[in-house]
């Protein structure tokens, strides 16, 4: 284990906000894998999906994880679908404990608002799409998580406190 904390979970559960608070509290660097991919590719995730497709994007995630294998003292926020590939899960677990952030579907929908930069939610009936994707992903998320934190009613600071307690307990 490389002294990292890896945040997994669906979009809108608070990985970015909780990750920043967590990193600041632990004196770690905050890293968002989607942002790294956007910077590397010179375009948004939405554009990557539109121009090259989801499989291409998932390949980029896998390549990025390979580059990150020696990362230390980072809070790593992953894209919601990064754990869909078994090989990625192994690479993530090698980086550090997987902390699953969850929220109720209605909370996720509210948090995402009218955001148009979510390729998997394009089109009509976002609420149904969120529920459908969660039905598929939740069993995967739950199976691989080392800790599960529900952020539905928790502030980013409260969620970060739970993770810090877990992380410090793990290191003893």
Key descriptive features of the protein:
five-stranded parallel beta sheet; globular; 172 residues; alpha/beta; Rossmann fold
Explain this structure.
With 172 residues, this protein is of the alpha/beta class. It has a single domain (5-170), classed as 3-Layer(aba) Sandwich (Rossmann fold), CATH 3.40.50. 55% of the residues lie in helices and 12% in strands. The protein has 8 helices and 5 strands, in the order E-H-E-H-H-H-E-H-E-H-H-E-H. The protein has helices spanning 15-26, 33-41, 45-52, 54-67, 86-95, 105-112, 126-144, 156-170, and strands at residues 5-8, 29-32, 74-77, 98-102, 147-150. A 5-stranded parallel sheet has the order 2-3-1-4-5, sandwiched between helices. Helix 1 (15-26) crosses helix 8, helix 3 packs across helix 4 and helix 6 packs across helix 7 (126-144). The longest helix is centred in the last third of the chain and has 19 residues, at 126-144. It is globular and about 50 Å long.
């Amino acid at each position: 284990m490389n002294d990292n904390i890896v945040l997994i979970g669906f979009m809108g559960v608070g990985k970015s906000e909780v990750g920043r608070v967590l990193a600041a509290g632990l004196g770690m660097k905050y890293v968002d894998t989607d942002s790294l991919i956007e910077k590397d590719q010179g375009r948004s995730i939405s554009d990557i999906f539109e121009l090259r497709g989801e499989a291409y994007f998932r390949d980029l995630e896998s390549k990025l994880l390979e580059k990150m294998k020696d990362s230390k003292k980072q809070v790593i926020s992953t894209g919601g679908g990064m754990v869909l590939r078994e090989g990625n899960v192994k690479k993530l677990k090698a980086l550090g404990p997987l902390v699953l952030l969850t929220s109720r579907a209605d909370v996720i929908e509210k948090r995402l608002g009218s955001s148009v930069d979510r390729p998997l939610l394009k089109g009509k009936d976002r609420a149904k799409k969120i529920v459908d994707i969660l039905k598929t992903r939740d069993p995967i998320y739950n199976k691989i998580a080392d800790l599960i934190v529900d952020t539905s009613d928790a502030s980013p600071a409260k969620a970060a406190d739970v993770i810090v307690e877990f992380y410090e307990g793990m290191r003893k």
